[in-house]
Every structure is written in C-alpha cells, then in structure tokens.
Design a protein that fits this description.
Elements (H helix, E strand, L loop, with lengths): L2 H45 L4 H43 L10 H13 L6 H12 L3 H28 L1
Length: about 170
Amino acid sequence: MRHTESKELKLELYKIAIETRNFEIKLFWQRSNYFLVLNTSIAVGAFTKVAEKSQIYFLLLGIVVSFLWFLVNIGSKYWQVRWEYEVAKLEKEINQEIYLFSANKKATDNAVKEFLSGYRQQDSFPSLCDSFILVKPSVSKIMICLSVIFVIFWSVSFFVMIIDIFA
C-alpha cells in the first residue's frame, strides 16, 4: 500500500471513529433520559397514596431500574472512551500538528483559559465561573453518579418501608 493510500485510509478511519464516538455520546444521553423518565414514573407510583404492598413493589422496581441505568451508563462510557482513544491514536498518525483529541490536559486547559480570557468581564462573577469551568467536570461521570444516587435512594426508601412495616 502506498503512503497516500495509507494516509487516506487512516483519514477515513478517523472520520468513522469520530462519527462512532459522537453516536455513542448521543446514545448515552438518550438512554439516560429514558431512565430518568422511568425513575420519575416509578417515584410517582411509589410515593402516591397506594397500599404498602404496592409501594414495596415500586421501590424494588426503582432499585432494579436504577441499577440497570448505572450498568448502561458505565457500558456507554466504556465505548465512548474506546472511540476517543481510537480518534486520538489516528489523529497522531495522520498529522502531528492536529491536537483535537490527542492534546494533553495542560494544553487543553491553556486553550480553554485563553478562550475564556477573551470573553472575561471586569466583575468577579465571570472569573468565578471560569474557575469552575476549568475544573472540567465530566458530565457523563456526573450522570453515572446520579444513577448511583438513585440506587442508594431507592434502597434506603425500601429499607425504611420494611422497618416501618415490621416496627
């Protein structure tokens, strides 16, 4: 295979990897939205005035659904990271001057700081916001934590109900 064919193939693979990564992110959020709505529906069923027996079933369902949500989230995050790795690897092979996915944290932080400084106001609030932005919380990891919080919430609610029944 000639060098130009190899580079064209890698460029095509790069495009596919980016599209697949974006698709995985889209699926992550679609699935999370589905589970949020499902958990909300279960909460409505569990905390309306219904018989205790029915509430127990709703609480158990909440535990199972939120645990499944957690598993779906970490599975989705796995594939997202896998494709980001492939994109970064291909990016280095295609062009040593492009650092969209292969940049290190320091370079990324400097780019964000530079961009934010161009829009900074003179008051302190934007600077405070900039500080929070530079922490770079992972929105997908926050959603994974939320699914764990739901598992804990449903579990505690279930055990509180059991204690109330047998007390």
